[in-house]
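Why should sequence recovery work at all? Because a backbone constrains its sequence more than one might expect. Tight turns favour small or flexible residues, buried strands favour hydrophobic ones, and helices have their own preferences. The token representation captures these environments compactly. In the example below, the structure is given first.
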């Protein structure tokens, strides 16, 4: 937890990232069956004709979640724009996970490999709406703190 400077507010954590989905069931299947997240809850707003779907790896009160917004009357793919980058997920073996995701029908958009001689191994997959998900292998390589602090890294 952190107190915001000049405020009485206490910040605990990032709660969620919201993205829109066209096909509610396909998106829930992707995030639960392909990426292995848990479905926390679905809230339907009949008057507004939309649903909020919360998924994540940890219980919702403890860790960040992905919030999928499904607008019931929207049936075409959303424009992602050029400002969106990706959601990142850390894991122990990005190579095995990318192979498993592909075997489940997931679309790999960047095969697993080292990122620019950094020692960090990553891959990218795409969800049913075209959002990019980065898979990052942990643990990260050690950082030379002295070199970093001297601006050598």
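From this structural description, the recovered sequence reads:
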């Amino acid at each position: 937890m952190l107190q915001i400077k000049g405020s009485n507010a206490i910040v605990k954590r990032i709660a969620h990232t919201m993205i829109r989905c066209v096909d509610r069931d396909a998106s829930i299947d992707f995030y639960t069956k392909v990426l292995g997240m848990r479905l926390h809850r679905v809230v339907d707003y009949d008057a507004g004709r939309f649903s909020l779907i919360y998924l994540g790896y940890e219980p919702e009160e403890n860790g960040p979640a992905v919030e999928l917004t499904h607008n019931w009357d929207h049936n075409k793919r959303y424009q992602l724009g050029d400002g969106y980058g990706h959601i990142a997920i850390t894991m122990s073996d990005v190579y095995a996970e990318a192979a498993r995701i592909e075997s489940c029908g997931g679309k790999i958009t960047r095969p697993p490999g080292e990122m620019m001689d950094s020692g960090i191994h990553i891959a990218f997959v795409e969800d049913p709406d075209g959002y990019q998900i980065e898979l990052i292998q942990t643990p990260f390589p050690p950082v030379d703190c002295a070199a970093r602090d001297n601006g050598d890294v």
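A few observations help interpret the result. Residues 24-34 form the longest helix (11 residues).
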